[in-house]
């Protein structure tokens, strides 16, 4: 975090020192003109005098706002849902509390960089070692009990300093407030709306209605909201100004009906906007904005220009009209009341009308601003800890609310037209977080003696365990004015009013008046998401209450406990898998992204409603009614397949446009895109059959058939029952698409949508892992591997075979191209076409002291074992009579012994086995073969351990295998093969997504896990941090800290890995990344991951067409210096013998020994093919190119179907250098001027001597590459050559 520009920011405003002021009712003071009355005191009692103002105006810095973005309609502000409650009597000068000076001498502060004690005076040195004071002991005790970590407390303090506003430097915005108030009060009465007035926004936009409107200047102009109580959180900088509409502008008897109040409210705003447009400081900087997505209710947003002295402000002023609490009778605005009646209806007719609870609440919001202000001030005025807790809760909510993160300034995008903001606008805002904290304070669950962090923990626990839903059997949550207030005893009062709230709203949280529902605009899905986020945060903190951790596991089956525990209870504890820094960053600094948060996303294009159909006279707007219907349909259709459903996005939900924009220029979209997010229940989401009612139950059967339509069918089940059912017949590898198919079918059927208007985001990416021939066949392959292992374990060998350990990705669900299953007709045949990719495993023998300790002898003994095993295996299983496959047919087993491994063909699959000797790597290292020792350690020790870890992860998380395959495919399509990024590294990166998913839940979908994999690569600080992958919690914080210390030490040496991944088996973190990837390669991986994340984020709002989302797997070829085009045969499997023959011939026998590695045994051996399994000609070509040209170029290739090799030249290799006989190959002489020739040392001194300089011969390099790859290389296209000039 960055510090403030001019010293530390003050944390809290001045508070009354006596508790008697804490409950003092504030008065809402109007903004007065400068020079009259008490000047700035009437704005917010800041008490800044003229000298302070002159001093501030001389500065070019603004009011402590460090952010460049002006986010003026953010949901974090306390006025985001209603206007924040604050106190006008609070701060006289905006300064923070200053503690009384202590009589004891403070301890001198020493910098860590300069601990020079000798420079201190004798008195200071004496004070340095004096015993701790009582205050210091209390701080240490509080840190230990309330914060669990001194670092965590320091981070919270730094965060609070970073997000607070320096209220001593708010001259520019305060002068703008004075000018705004003066401008509004100077508007003459009876001013008509301007010509550019948007009459189309009015429901009753008749000429008669417009002519009857008579404007009167405001009764009151007051600064309200979080600015007054000093709870504004950067970077969303808003000042809320409430303008009270005079009673003379309204008809108190009739304006409550049919949006008449809303129309007059908008006309009143239009007059204010026209006046502001004429002011030099507000001209062109005034906008209309929908209030929380309500198209019938707008506010004005003003972005002031710099004042006359050039001092600018980043604050936005939001003008919010309101009316007196007694304007309309409350009995007309109860939830059951109806105030929307069609024009042609007879109001006197005793017809039952639909209740309009949301419409009524929108009017009550404007009548209760000052009530909320009083309630807020009562609790916040006496405690700085409560204010800090409110700031922390706002930060927490903002990081989890997409709408707050995507808020932008209008003028930066569309200065003249409508700007539509996307996001979950119905998620609880910063205002709600503050009101929740006030509620806890009124209930006595938090108090001023607690730390701010403890209050945050209690608030999160209360959110997680409180059921706000209207169907909850618990009492309604209602705010009390104070701890002693008993005027609204909701648990014992008559339930008539409560039943009305339960009936009409998804969630209920009543304010102190008992008539306003603070959650009236929040949907049930948003409340579930809200509680879900709180539960994840508690899990991150190590919370272990089962009532909390199981709330969201099965919807409707586990209910939350209503009452939060006592404040003194130890509700959270330190999580061993987090250190303090990671915990703080994930809890408060990590922004949750919509496309990473849930398991699946269904994008729905809903047509805009026809305004002429009378839809405006229905409660709530038509789009909200339609989206609520969408959620109801999906909840019924998906049932227990999902944990919960969240309505994420509603394009066009909040609009902004310049006040002088004519209505004809306001574009309208034909469709509103709604994104429905799903979190799957891992055990049921891929269920194939949905069971319906019994055929005998005709009424239930009719309802079932009416809902499911043609998908319903009658089936007889194994238990003999005959029921209606829906069967989703999809292959095993595509069952994750069933929820998307259900959503598409139900929505198209019941909402009359076209199929192309409903689609699942990211689903086209399945083509890379689930196309024909790429299906995961690990389970049948594992069965054959186990049967083969069992056969090997029973062979009569001189040394007992203890185990056969798998190491191949084919045996852990993570192979990009899995082994194809042989047909039943060829399972027992010895002449079938064998797969080209073998399955690798390691044989482990019992310990013996007879093993030789010489490298060459050890290899000969291992070869003898291969020969003996092959001979015994062929004798036992070569005729196919001793082992049967899964289908009962006998399988032929054929073994071939090689010098380096044993090859066995079993059940149509090829397995390669190597023998593990525990001391082999040590023997090779002592013999000087460091490369061989490293390879032996990888194959025999690290690979089996890694396989166990990844295989266990696959069993624990079913979607892990598909996510790892997709991640590997992404790496390969961007031409990072195993030689650049080992596949074990990719698997560990994906495992980290599952091991430590916070701030998200563990992914159930492989697509979202893949997106998080890209985000991890793009956002993790690889240059300074070690990535810890600990699935079972085997590692302690000390282990990660030790790995981090070693990594920092490596940074000072010559060789430093590009990344370190620490696991329980690799606590140093360098097993797989010690040599590869190189920093250059990993830098490109990170760059491509950032591009991919940006592409996903851009496409998420629109759903992403199939062609667009597939661009994730298209690498930019222009970044390479040269391209080697290969024969485009698919994966180089077809006609492979011909290509291999040409390749071996062109290499003049360089690879001939690889084909001679196999030794035929004289017992029933089939004729071997020219190319043995495991031989890849393109990989051999890459190895040959690296061996020949590795000093001048790097080579990149997609080993799964690529047709091109990317070449990156090494610029330093093309710099001219003196001719040497040892490197004269592929060199050509170059002529250099005397100035360009480097100095050549001769006899210990540097002097200019004529010399022959050479550089790589470019044409010869290209021709040698073509010759080396004859038969595979079609052409070489050199895009650019490096310069031959010296740097």
Q: Would you kindly provide a written description of the structure presented here, covering whatever features stand out?
A:
It is a single chain. This protein has 1287 residues and is of the alpha+beta class. The chain is 34% helix and 13% strand. It is built from 37 helices and 33 strands. The strands form 9 sheets. The protein has a 7-stranded mixed beta sheet with strand order 1-2-5-4-3-11-6, sandwiched between helices. It has a 6-stranded mixed beta sheet with strand order 17-18-21-20-19-25, sandwiched between helices. Strand 20 (902-906) and strand 21 (909-916) form a beta hairpin. Helix 10 (369-380) packs across helix 13 and helix 26 runs antiparallel to helix 27 (930-956). It is globular, with a radius of gyration of 37 Å. The model is unreliable at 1-115, 345-351, 406-424, 485-494, 544-576, 824-834, 1130-1170 and 1245-1250 (pLDDT under 50).
């Amino acid at each position: 975090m960055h510090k403030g520009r001019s010293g530390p920011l003050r944390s809290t405003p001045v508070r009354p020192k006596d508790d008697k002021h804490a409950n003092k009712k504030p008065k809402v003071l109007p903004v007065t003109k400068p020079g009259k009355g008490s000047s700035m005191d009437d704005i917010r009692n800041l008490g800044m005098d003229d000298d302070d103002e002159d001093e501030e105006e001389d500065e070019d810095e603004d009011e402590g706002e460090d952010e460049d973005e002006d986010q003026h309609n953010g949901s974090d502000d306390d006025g985001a849902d209603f206007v924040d409650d604050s106190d006008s009597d609070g701060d006289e000068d905006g300064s923070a509390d200053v503690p009384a000076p202590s009589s004891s001498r403070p301890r001198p502060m020493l910098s860590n960089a300069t601990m020079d004690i000798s420079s201190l005076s004798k008195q200071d040195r004496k004070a340095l070692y004096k015993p701790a004071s009582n205050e210091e002991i209390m701080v240490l005790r509080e840190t230990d009990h309330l914060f669990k970590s001194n670092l965590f407390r320091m981070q919270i303090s730094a965060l609070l300093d970073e997000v607070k506003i320096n209220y001593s430097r708010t001259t520019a915005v305060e002068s703008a407030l004075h000018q705004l108030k003066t401008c509004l009060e100077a508007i003459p009465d009876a001013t008509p709306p301007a010509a550019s007035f948007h009459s189309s926004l009015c429901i009753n936009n008749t000429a008669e209605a417009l002519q009857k409107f008579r404007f009167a200047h405001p009764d009151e102009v007051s600064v309200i909201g979080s600015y007054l109580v000093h709870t504004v959180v950067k970077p969303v900088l808003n000042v809320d100004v409430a303008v009270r509409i005079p009673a003379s502008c309204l008809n108190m008897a009739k304006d409550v009906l049919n949006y008449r109040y809303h129309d007059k409210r908008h006309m009143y705003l239009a007059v204010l906007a026209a006046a502001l447009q004429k002011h030099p400081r507000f001209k062109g900087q005034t906008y209309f904005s929908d209030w929380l997505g309500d198209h019938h209710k707008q506010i004005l947003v003003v972005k002031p220009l710099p004042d006359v002295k050039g001092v600018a402000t980043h604050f936005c002023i939001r003008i919010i009209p309101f009316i007196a609490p007694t304007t309309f009778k409350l009995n007309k605005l109860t939830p059951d009341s109806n105030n929307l009646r069609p024009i042609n209806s007879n109001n006197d007719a005793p017809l039952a009308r639909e209740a309009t609870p949301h419409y009524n609440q929108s009017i009550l919001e404007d009548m209760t601003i000052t009530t909320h202000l009083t309630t807020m001030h009562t609790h916040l005025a006496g405690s700085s800890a409560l204010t800090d807790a409110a700031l922390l809760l706002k930060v927490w909510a903002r990081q989890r609310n997409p709408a707050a993160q995507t808020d932008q300034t209008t003028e930066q995008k569309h200065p003249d037209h409508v700007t539509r903001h996307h996001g979950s606008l119905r998620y609880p805002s910063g205002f709600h977080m503050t009101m929740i904290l006030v509620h806890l304070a009124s209930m006595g669950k938090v108090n001023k003696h607690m730390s701010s962090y403890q209050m945050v923990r209690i608030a999160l626990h209360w959110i997680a365990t409180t059921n706000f839903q209207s169907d909850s059997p618990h009492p309604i949550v209602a705010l009390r004015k104070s701890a002693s207030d008993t005027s609204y005893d909701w648990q014992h009062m008559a339930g008539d009013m409560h039943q009305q709230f339960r009936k009409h709203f998804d969630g209920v949280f009543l304010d102190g008046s008992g008539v306003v529902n603070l959650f009236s605009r929040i949907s049930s899905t948003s409340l579930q998401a809200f509680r879900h986020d709180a539960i994840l945060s508690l899990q991150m903190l190590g919370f272990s209450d089962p009532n909390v951790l199981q709330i969201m596991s099965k919807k409707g089956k586990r209910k939350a406990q209503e009452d939060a525990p006592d404040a003194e209870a130890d509700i959270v504890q330190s999580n061993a898998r987090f250190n303090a820094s990671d915990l703080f960053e994930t809890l408060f600094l990590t922004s949750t992204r919509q496309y990473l948060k849930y398991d699946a996303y269904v994008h729905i294009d809903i047509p805009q409603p026809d305004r002429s159909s009378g839809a405006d006279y229905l409660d709530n707007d038509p789009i909200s009614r339609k989206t609520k219907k969408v959620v109801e349909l999906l909840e019924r259709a998906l049932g227990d397949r999902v944990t919960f459903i969240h309505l994420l996005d509603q394009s066009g939900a909040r609009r902004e446009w310049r006040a002088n924009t004519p209505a004809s220029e306001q574009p309208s979209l034909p469709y509103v895109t709604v994104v429905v997010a799903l979190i799957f229940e891992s055990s049921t989401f891929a269920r194939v059959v949905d069971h319906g009612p019994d055929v005998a139950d005709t009424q239930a059967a009719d309802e079932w058939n009416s809902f499911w339509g043609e998908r319903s069918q009658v089936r007889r089940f194994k238990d003999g029952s005959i029921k209606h059912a829906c069967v989703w017949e999809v292959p095993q590898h595509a069952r994750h698409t069933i929820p998307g198919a259900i959503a598409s079918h139900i929505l198209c059927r019941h909402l009359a949508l076209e199929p192309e208007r409903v689609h699942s985001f990211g689903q086209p990416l399945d083509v890379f892992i689930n196309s024909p021939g790429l299906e995961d066949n690990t389970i049948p392959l594992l069965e054959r591997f186990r049967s083969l292992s069992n056969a090997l374990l029973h062979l009569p060998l001189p040394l007992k075979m203890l185990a056969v350990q798998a190491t191949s990705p084919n045996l852990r669900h993570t192979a990009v191209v899995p082994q194809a299953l042989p047909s039943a007709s060829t399972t027992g045949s010895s002449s079938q076409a064998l797969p080209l990719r073998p399955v690798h495993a390691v044989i482990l023998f019992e310990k013996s002291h007879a093993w030789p300790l010489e490298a060459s002898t050890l290899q000969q003994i291992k070869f003898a074992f291969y020969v003996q095993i092959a001979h015994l295996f062929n004798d036992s299983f070569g005729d196919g009579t001793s082992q049967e496959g899964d289908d009962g047919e006998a399988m032929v087993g054929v073994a071939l012994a090689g010098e380096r491994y044993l090859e066995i063909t079993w059940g149509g699959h090829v397995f390669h086995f190597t023998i593990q000797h525990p001391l082999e790597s040590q023997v090779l290292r002592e013999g000087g073969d460091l490369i061989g020792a490293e390879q032996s350690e990888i194959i025999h020790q690290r690979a089996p351990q890694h396989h166990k870890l990844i295989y266990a992860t696959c069993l624990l998380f079913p979607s892990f295998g598909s996510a790892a395959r997709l991640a590997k495919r992404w790496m390969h399509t961007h031409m990072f093969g195993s030689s650049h990024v080992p596949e074990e590294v990719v698997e560990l990166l994906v495992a980290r997504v599952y091991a430590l998913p916070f701030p998200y839940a563990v992914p159930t979908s492989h697509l979202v896990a893949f997106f998080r994999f890209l985000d991890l690569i793009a956002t993790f600080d690889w240059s300074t941090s070690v990535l810890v992958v600990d699935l079972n919690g085997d590692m302690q914080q000390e282990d990660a800290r030790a790995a981090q210390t070693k990594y920092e030490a490596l940074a000072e040496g010559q060789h430093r890995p590009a990344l370190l991944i620490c696991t329980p088996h690799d606590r140093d973190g360098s097993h797989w990344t010690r040599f590869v990837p190189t920093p250059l390669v990993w830098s490109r991986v990170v760059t491509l991951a950032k591009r991919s994340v940006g592409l996903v984020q851009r496409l998420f709002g629109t759903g992403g067409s199939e062609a667009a989302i597939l661009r994730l797997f298209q690498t930019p070829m222009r970044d390479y210096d040269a391209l080697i085009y290969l024969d485009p045969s698919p994966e180089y499997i077809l006609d492979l013998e011909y290509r291999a023959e040409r390749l071996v011939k062109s290499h003049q026998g360089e690879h001939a020994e690889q084909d001679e590695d196999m030794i035929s045994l004289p017992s029933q051996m089939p004729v071997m093919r020219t190319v043995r399994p495991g031989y890849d000609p393109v990989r051999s070509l890459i190895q040959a190119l690296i061996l020949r040209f590795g000093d001048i170029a790097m080579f990149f290739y997609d080993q799964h179907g690529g047709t091109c090799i990317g070449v990156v030249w090494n610029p330093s290799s093309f710099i001219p250098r003196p001719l040497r006989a040892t490197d004269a190959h592929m060199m050509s002489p170059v002529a250099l001027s005397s100035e360009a020739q480097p100095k050549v040392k001769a006899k210990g001194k540097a002097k200019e001597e004529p010399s022959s300089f050479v550089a790589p011969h470019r044409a010869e390099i290209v021709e040698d590459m073509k010759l080396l790859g004859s038969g595979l290389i079609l052409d070489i296209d050199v895009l650019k050559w490096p310069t031959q000039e010296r740097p």
